[in-house]
């Protein structure tokens, strides 16, 4: 009976330790990747929009120069 209790206690403590370890590992990687991925995407969109606007402005300026 004593051995069974010790084995049960050991298994439960190992399970709790493993659960806590996995939760902390998942939380850290999720926060790092999730927080930066949308920001990177948004930054890329902003850069592309700026590039498109600059290109459109250059074309408009060239068109105005040609018509004058």
Structure description:
The chain is an all-alpha fold and 68 residues long. 97% of the residues lie in helices and 0% in strands. The protein has one helix spanning 2-67. The longest helix has 66 residues, at 2-67. It is rod-shaped and about 100 Å long. The termini are far apart. 0% of the residues are buried. The model has no long low-confidence stretch (mean pLDDT 85).
Contiguous runs where pLDDT drops below 50 for at least 5 residues: none
Gross geometry: rod-shaped
Mean pLDDT: 85
- Could you give the count of β-strands? 0
Class from secondary-structure proportions: mainly alpha
Summed up, the helix count is: 1
- Output the radius of gyration: 29 Å
- The H/E string reads H
Please summarize the sheet with the most strands.
none
Spell out the blueprint of helices and strands.
Blueprint: H1 2-67
Notable features of this structure?
single chain, 68 residues, 1 helix, rod-shaped
Could you give a quick summary of the protein structure above?
By secondary structure, the chain is mainly α. The chain has one helix at residues 2-67.
């Amino acid at each position: 009976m004593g051995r069974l209790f010790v084995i049960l206690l050991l298994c439960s403590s190992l399970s709790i330790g493993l659960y806590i370890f996995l939760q902390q590992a998942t939380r850290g990687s999720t926060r790092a990747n999730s927080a930066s991925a949308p920001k990177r995407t948004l930054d890329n969109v902003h850069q592309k929009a700026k590039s498109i606007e600059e290109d459109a402005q250059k074309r408009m300026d060239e068109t105005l120069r040609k018509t004058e």
